[in-house]
Amino acid sequence: MKPYVFLLAISLQTTISYSQTTEKDLVSKACMNYLDGFYNGDTLKLKESVAPTLYKFGYLKNETSNNYEDQGRMTYEQAMTYSKNVLRTKRFVSEKAPKKVVVLDIMNNIASAKVTAWWGTDYMLLSKKGDEWMIEQVLWEGPLQKDE
């Protein structure tokens, strides 16, 4: 009887440890889904992790003037259109392209993260909806600096 109890205890402990996903893992997953949406045209991952009220805003360096210029806002709908176009045209991003997520802070209902992508650096604010983290706001700047 003792061997069965021992095996049951180990089995339960293993199941519990494998099923425990940390909040940091969930925030990272949302950010990676965002990257996969833009890199691979995966609209399902975007829908899973980007809020319909997305506010994405950024700056890009003008090659002529060498000044950073406002690129305007990207809405949720525009993000989806971009992702669909990547899939339609099969213009996927190289496997060697930067794809890095650093979770900066997590509270009860909000989190922040830094994402490094082929276009530059994104700072993200996320909110918790039920058990899922959703990207609400993105502020970005490109291109990448040489040391990134």
Characterization of the model:
The protein is α+β, with helices and mostly antiparallel strands and 148 residues long. The protein is built from 4 helices and 6 strands. The model is unreliable at 14-18 (pLDDT under 50).
Task: Kindly list the characteristics that best describe this protein.
148 residues; alpha+beta; 6-stranded mixed beta sheet; 4 helices; 6 strands
Question: What's this model, at a glance?
Answer:
The chain is an alpha+beta fold and 148 residues long.
Q: Structural class, judged by helices and strands?
A: alpha+beta
Shape: globular
Q: Bin the strand percentage.
A: 35-45%
Low-confidence stretches: 14-18
Distance between the termini: 58 Å
Largest beta-sheet characterization: 6 strands, mixed
Count of individual beta strands: 6
N-to-C SSE string, H for helix and E for strand? HHHEEHEEEE
* Adjacency order of strands in the biggest sheet: 2-1-6-5-4-3
Q: Name the average pLDDT.
A: 88
Please count the helical segments: 4
Radius of gyration: 19 Å
The helicity comes to 25-40%
Write the layout of secondary structure elements.
Blueprint: H1 2-19, H2 23-40, H3 43-49, E1 50-61, E2 68-74, H4 76-89, E3 100-106, E4 110-117, E5 120-129, E6 132-142
Parallel strand pairs: 1-6
Antiparallel strand pairs: 1-2, 3-4, 4-5, 5-6
Helix pairs in contact: 2-3, 2-4
